[in-house]
Amino acid sequence: MTTQPDRLTPAQLRTLFLFEALDDAQLDWLAEHGRVEQRAGGTLVYAEGEPATCFFVLVRGAVALSRLVHGDDVEVSRTEQRGVYGGATQAYLGEQVDQVYRNSLRAVTDADFFVLLAEDFAYALRSWFPMPMHLLEGLFFGMRDSQAIVGERERLLALGSLSAGLTHELNNPAAAAVRATSVLRDRVAGMRHKLAMIADGRLDGSALHGLVALQEEAVARVATAPKLSPVATADAEDTLTDWLEEHGVDGAWDLAPILVGGGLDTAWLTRVKTAVGPADLEAAVRWLTYTVDTELLMREIGDAVTRISGLVGAAKQYSQLDRAPHRVVDVHDLLDATLVMFKGKIPAEVTLVREYDRGLPPVPAYAAELNQVWTNLIDNALGAMGEKGVLTVHTGLVGDRLAVEITDTGPGIPPEVRPRIFEPFFTTKPVGAGTGLGLDISYRIVVHKHHGDIRVETEPGRTTFRVLLPIAEGAPEEPGDAPTT
């Protein structure tokens, strides 16, 4: 087959489809610079991740190509076609990219390979095909740069959408706090006026002290007032209204709801009457009602401010602005922060179900980037369901990895589409509605940066995206590293 044990003739090289269109001078050059290497069946030709020093072309035998997935060597293809190639296929890019083997090649049977050093392969391509090399180089870096730019755009669009929802969520408690503050100002002014009427000399010191004690009791009751059902609330208000009207207090229908909201009843009002007497009952009741209303308004303001603080905290947790890029995190905190950001986007008829296993251990992760994954998956789930459905967020263990599942009750992913959903720029959304990078970005974050996995199970009425994350500390890429392809 060969004139020398380690060489192929130009004529033999021409029988390989990769070289059949080369001219005689080019074949002579290859014959001079290349060599034949033999590998026994079952041996490794080269391993993924090692420096890419050679370009291999199969001359005889069968080979298998494999990739590392979660540390396991997974076979991708197997062939015995003469002329198939592998190895330093990106040597023509030189130092612009890391020159490492992107996969592993194994000889299935005894095999012969035509082998070129990476630098010789790069020289031949650049010297013989300068225009195609410029085009290939431009395509490679253009696609990579475009993917990075569109990926950033995808993140900005998602952030803009979530920011709009967050603004809406912040507006509600802020407006409630402003309204309550305005009403509170009036109530405080009214309370000062009624206090002046009560303390104009008609009440002796002991009666005034008793009234102040009842005021303190009213404040304490507001803090512990039980929540009543609508029917129970209406009954309690009717009872208080009747009592107030029977004792000559005007506007009883306005005072009763406030007193009921503060957890007060007719027995307490009877004590007020005993303390101040019938003549000053109305002024005392109104003063105490102002006190109760003031406490209720302050509680409303406190709840609104707490809500605002919680939303800001969720936004901070979502963006991870004050955290180191890589740290140990509780995925439930990340999921909850993302769901808070989505609250304004979840339709009224979409039910959110959280199925959390709170016993799960924390995982080492880039928190902000995992939040981007949850954002993409939840946004896709909501888009699939439309205005009605059930969104389920589930956590648990699958083997030795932590699993996060996002499930929707949408129509499912068509079989012809499913193999392409993780491809960059592939989208089923209308033109202008999606970039097709959401799942690609999610895949890169989960698989390349966290050494995890992302899978999908789909059927009409149920689609589940499952993210699997290693619990043990790994060796993640640096934040600035470009994901490998």
UniProtKB/TrEMBL annotation:
Gene Ontology molecular function terms on file: protein histidine kinase activity
PROSITE patterns hit by this protein: CNMP_BINDING_3 (PS50042), HIS_KIN (PS50109)
Domain Histidine kinase: from-to ranges: 307-473
Entry EC no(s): 2.7.13.3
CDD domains documented for this protein: CAP_ED
Domain spans labelled Cyclic nucleotide-binding: 18-125
Keyword Transmembrane helix: no
Gene3D superfamilies associated with the record: 1.10.287.130, Histidine kinase-like ATPase, C-terminal domain, Jelly Rolls
Entries under InterPro entries matching the protein: cNMP-bd_dom (IPR000595), cNMP-bd_dom_sf (IPR018490), HATPase_C_sf (IPR036890), HATPase_dom (IPR003594), His_kinase_dom (IPR005467), RmlC-like_jellyroll (IPR014710), Sig_transdc_His_kin-like_C (IPR004358)
GO BP: phosphorelay signal transduction system
Keyword annotations: Kinase, Transferase, Two-component regulatory system
Keyword NAD in record: no
Catalytic activity: ATP + protein L-histidine = ADP + protein N-phospho-L-histidine
Protein name, entry field: histidine kinase
